[in-house]
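Question (not urgent): is this output format expected?
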Amino acid sequence: MMPHLLLPAMGGVLLLMGRRLFWLFVGVCGFAVGIQAAPLLFGPQPFAVIWAIGLGCGILGALLALFAQQLAVVVGGFLAGATLALNLLPPAGAQTFPWVVLVCAVVGAVATFLLFDWALIVLSAMLGAALIVDGMGLQWSVAVAIYLVLILIGVVVQAGWMRRHRRVP
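Got this back:
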């Protein structure tokens, strides 16, 4: 039961506070990539092994964000792009899909490097929405509609906090 609640809870935090909690954003990206990549890299594994790999990747990501923020910016964008591709794109074929994930990861890395605040807001809202919707088990058309609404809510909330924080009294 905990895994079914943990991912949507992390998604909710990212959706609304991904920019403010940058270290959490990078940690959740590492966790999400870890649990998704582990079966692809190591084959079928017990649930506990997959979560341990994800947790290890998440902790590494969070530590990187705390101690090497510039590098974490690029790594976080890369991981967010890869995670979004793994969550949202239908498998295009055994040979094409890894390239699509890589391209999405590189786009995420470049976007966060060049447009840190806005890329972080959009990517964290997208990833947060994906984690929330993924655990709901909804019909595809309903899931897409909820996903888009959640992204809009996340971007609006985070942009509002950014605007208020940057105002000079």
